[in-house]
Amino acid sequence: GAIVLGDGALDLCVAADVIIYIKDLSELFDAVAAVLCPGGLFSFSTEKGSAEETEWPAAEEESVIPAAPEETELQQPAEESAPEEGRQDASPPPQPGVGYVERASERIAHYEGYIRWLVDARSCGAFKMVEVQETMVRNDEGSPIMGHVYVIRRM
User: Fold this and answer.
1) Which residues are within 8 A (CB) of 3 and not within 5 positions of it... i.e. 6 or more apart?
2) Helix (H, G, I), strand (E, B) or coil at 148
């Protein structure tokens, strides 16, 4: 059977050479946020995808990536909004692009901007980026495959 972990049960979660088999990482990040204790670390590696191939805004356009909702926006009284819009929630901002691409190798490459969006904006403050290193993550038939190793902290 499956191992069930309670909220905040882990100090460290590591996914080395695993993320390359997952397209959208939103649910993974939600699950990791639930099981990591405050201050806990999540370290993982990805294959490097470009903004263009992953349909993500280019670096010079990253200012168009929505920021996380401000705390004051979440605390506005409902009566200030139209009746239909009265519900305030901490939904993450919309994703500006796909952020990942499946390659001929059937592995998934993720764009660094997508990962940063997951950490900075979508997590609504649950995570903080600690370290990012570009490195060779594997050697595929004599060709180096570039990627990133990330370390993020649960806030």
Assistant:
1) none
2) strand
Nearest to 17 by CA among 152, 129, 147: 147
Query: CB neighbours (10 Å) of residue 91?
Result: 10
Ranges assigned E (strand) in 35-126: 36-49, 100-102, 108-111
Token couple for 31: 């699950």
- Whole-model pTM? 0.77
Beta strands in 16-63 (DSSP E): 36-49
Q: What are phi and psi of 21, to 5 degrees?
A: -110, 10
DSSP label of 95: P
Pairing of strands 36-49, 108-111: parallel
**Helix, strand, coil percent content, the chain, rounded in steps of 5:** 25, 35, 40
Q: CA–CA separation, 20 vs 24, rounded Å?
A: 11
Question: 16-58, pLDDT tens digit by residue?
Answer: 999 999 999 999 999 999 999 999 999 999 999 999 999 998 7
The DSSP 8-state label assigned to residue 79 in this structure reads G
**Cα–Cα distance measured from residue 58 to residue 138, given in angstroms and rounded to the nearest whole number:** 26
- Amino acid residing at 82: A
Alpha-helical regions (H) of 65-133 = 71-74, 112-117
